[in-house]
Amino acid sequence: MVGSANLNIMIKAARKAGRSLVKDFREVEQLQVSMKGAGDFVSRADIAAEKILKDELMGARPTYGWCAEESAEEEGTDPTRRWIVDPLDGTTNFLHGLPHWAVSIALEHKGQVVAGVVFDPAKDEMFFAEKGAGSWMNDSRMRVSGRSHMIEAIFATGLPFAGRGDLPDTLKDLGRLLPVCAGVRRWGSAALDLAYVAAGRYDGFWERRLKPWDMAAGVIIAREAGALLEPMDPSADLLDSGNVICANEALYSHFAKIIRA
């Protein structure tokens, strides 16, 4: 696929940040780690990757706004566009030496995400999409799975860690969902969960209390691959709400009914 100039900038930035992260990942035991909160860590590698991304993205498009996990939000001189960035989605996996984490970059235009990149450097898988142009992983076009029966389907979610109060809701979700599906996975990266729905590896995904940078890129990648996505409250804004339900079209209605029960 030949992408737009903005998409090419995003892919280039993701690869550059990914190379930096891979170097630190090989020396994970020596990373300088500081505590941000219960179960929520930030590392030197995380901050260094965000600097690379900001230098690349804002250097190429200095008028755009900036919204990222590890730095203050900035409004651009072009108020219609902003970058939404997570330099390391799956930080806890990274710090434990688990090779499942990603660089996530989205471009928002007039309140709508119009391009997204999710790069998994450990597996060299680049997931990307632009509005109206489909979803891709490296050189291959992606489509959501064709499964239509819940009992055959695998879903992904995030499980609340220490310091979060949404455990009762998640346990209720699991109590309703597990008896009627083939399984639920918790791999620790919402960006990759959404990309995996796009690739047909998962049949659906749901999670609460996500930040915009956790899911902005994954949302357009999943949608362009044919997934349906909504906030848990259909009247809410998806990125602002932080609560997402995503699945292929055949399963979506049944799946969403279970999660919203």
TrEMBL record:
The keyword Protein transport does not apply. Its cofactor is Mg(2+). One of its GO terms (biological process) is phosphatidylinositol phosphate biosynthetic process. It catalyses: a myo-inositol phosphate + H2O = myo-inositol + phosphate. Mg(2+) binds at residues 69, 86, 88-89, 214. Its EC number is 3.1.3.25. The keyword Magnesium applies. This is Inositol-1-monophosphatase. It comes from Pseudosulfitobacter pseudonitzschiae.
